[in-house]
């Protein structure tokens, strides 16, 4: 379960990212300078990273905490995968 | 100028990325497992990386090639920024 | 505390990385092709990533587990920093 | 050919990185806190990134420029590989 504030935050970040992706498509259609398009792609990736950070924090405080408290040894493999994905 | 095949390719990748972002918002609303949401965020990041690669290749073959052929020394700073571009 | 097997593993990876760095310096002195030097730099970065993974796993199983079990709320900020750690 | 100033710069950065790797091994032997070791691994990776940037700049100004000026179409594949590796 994600708490309501975090969910709202993530949904806002995703809505912003979706808007940015549409803006990039428009730039490509208008034949804008490649470097400007690449800069915008980086910006949307940063917005997505922001959403991922909020979800990750929620994951640590809830799922990881529950698993560790109840002694589930499988959580470490899952957590390593999450960490590897972020790099 | 991006050549028409590449532009089409980039627009398809962006459309796919936009669809994925909407799908992620839906997952968040349905309170799906955090790790699955994070996996989907990675997937859309990869789709955007794919679009960036096509644009970068076009940039090298056109803008960078023109600038180097005409002896413009400023291209190297710009190119280094493109290379350093990270999420 | 890092367990002895992991410590040995990390030290081997670091020794390998150190050897690779010396090899790269030799390549630079011999004026080897830039792309080959860059490939070797990527290789040593991967060796260091490998060492970081082992240390991170140890950190999760020991420090993070102890902190969560004892209810220390500060562990989440620290863990987020470890996850965000990038080159 | 790397010009002498750049070569000197790269060799200094590599020597610094090698020293840092030895320092990290010492930290591991002294059983220092995992997070501090991870921070030092990030620092050496940044030093190596710095060396890679200088080599990349030299590569662009010399090899890439020569290949583009002489109309070698293979340079774009090589350059894309160099760019992908940095991300």
TrEMBL record, chains A, B, C, D:
Q: Which domain of life is it from?
A: Bacteria
Query: Does DNA-binding show up as a keyword for this record?
Result: yes
Q: Which Gene3D superfamilies match?
A: Metal-sensitive repressor, helix protomer
Tell me what this protein is called.
Answer: DNA-binding FrmR family transcriptional regulator
One Pfam match: Trns_repr_metal
> Which InterPro entries does the record cross-reference, listed alphabetically?
Metal_Tscrpt_repr (IPR003735), Metal_Tscrpt_repr_sf (IPR038390)
Native organism: Kineococcus xinjiangensis
Return the similarity comment: Belongs to the CsoR family.
Taxon lineage: Bacteria, Bacillati, Actinomycetota, Actinomycetes, Kineosporiales
Keywords for this protein? Copper, DNA-binding
Q: What are the recorded Gene Ontology BP terms?
A: negative regulation of DNA-templated transcription
GO molecular function terms listed in the Swiss-Prot or TrEMBL record: DNA binding; metal ion binding
């Amino acid at each position: 379960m994600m708490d309501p504030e975090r969910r709202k935050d993530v949904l806002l970040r995703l809505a912003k990212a979706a808007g940015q992706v549409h803006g990039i498509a428009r730039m490509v259609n208008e034949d804008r300078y490649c470097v400007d398009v690449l800069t915008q792609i980086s910006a949307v990736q940063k917005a997505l990273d922001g959403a991922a950070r909020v979800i990750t924090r929620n994951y640590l405080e809830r799922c990881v905490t529950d698993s560790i408290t109840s002694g589930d040894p499988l959580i470490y493999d899952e957590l390593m995968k999450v960490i590897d994905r972020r790099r």
